[in-house]
């Protein structure tokens, strides 16, 4: 999903909305006509992915805190606890989906950019220029591949956390009694560990994104 960016004039926002209803190549061509090239779109999408990962970290941490409060407080109101944990799960799920959507948008524009770059290299008549551009493409693609791998790894790390959250939300829903809380306590340590892995993977991905953005802008 494409979100309004205050740095873009109204015409760019309209084109971004239209992109969800038309093919990517038409969208990129339209954006280039108003001075917003694939390289710029790629940087913007990487930045948005990084921001979405940071937001997802916050959501997962909040969900873990809510889970902790449920299993640690004696005589907690189970119905209230279920509603709170269910809401946190939904927020985390939405944050995870936003990260996946952003990564997909990065991959889409990167593929278009590299295809265009390869095509333009073949237009060179100057062999020195051609070799230099070919080397630049190879280096940029290698850095991009490293970043995308890190992004996908962080994306994958969210799935077991969401699965565990969903299991526990459903279990609490179906077992609104003291025994349910006792069972949930046994899940907390594993969930805490999974979220720790998730945060580490996201931080690596965010660092790779920052590095890639800096190199493209440099």
Describe the protein's topology.
Blueprint (H helix, E strand, L loop, with lengths): L9 H10 L4 H10 L4 H35 L5 H44 L5 H48 L3 H40 L1
Helix pairs in contact: 1-2, 3-4, 3-6, 4-5, 5-6
Tell me about this structure.
With 218 residues, this protein is mainly α. It has two domains: 1-36, no CATH class; 38-217, Four Helix Bundle (Hemerythrin (Met), subunit A) (Up-down Bundle). Helix content is 86%, strand content 0%. The chain is built from six helices and no strands. It has helices at residues 10-19, 24-33, 38-72, 78-121, 127-174, 178-217.
Brief sketch in words of this structure:
The chain has six helices and no strands. The protein has helices at 10-19, 24-33, 38-72, 78-121, 127-174, 178-217.
């Amino acid at each position: 999903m494409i979100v309004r960016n205050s740095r873009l004039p109204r015409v760019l926002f309209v084109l971004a909305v239209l992109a969800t209803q038309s093919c990517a190549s038409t969208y990129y061509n339209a954006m280039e006509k108003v001075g917003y090239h694939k390289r710029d779109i790629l940087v913007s999408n990487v930045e948005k992915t990084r921001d979405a990962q940071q937001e997802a970290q916050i959501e997962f941490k909040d969900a873990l805190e809510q889970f902790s409060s449920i299993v640690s407080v004696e005589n907690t109101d189970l119905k209230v606890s279920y509603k709170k944990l269910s809401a946190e799960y939904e927020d985390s799920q939405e944050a995870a989906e936003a990260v996946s959507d952003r990564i997909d948008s990065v991959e889409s524009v990167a593929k278009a950019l590299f295809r265009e770059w390869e095509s333009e290299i073949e237009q060179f008549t100057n062999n020195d220029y051609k070799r230099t551009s070919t080397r630049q493409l190879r280096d940029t693609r290698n850095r991009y591949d490293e970043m995308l791998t890190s992004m996908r790894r962080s994306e994958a790390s969210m799935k077991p956390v969401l699965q565990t959250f969903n299991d526990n939300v459903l279990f609490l829903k179906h077992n609104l009694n003291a025994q349910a809380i006792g069972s949930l306590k046994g899940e907390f340590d594993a969930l805490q560990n999974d979220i720790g892995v998730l945060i580490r993977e996201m931080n690596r991905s965010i660092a790779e994104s920052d590095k890639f953005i800096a190199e493209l802008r440099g």
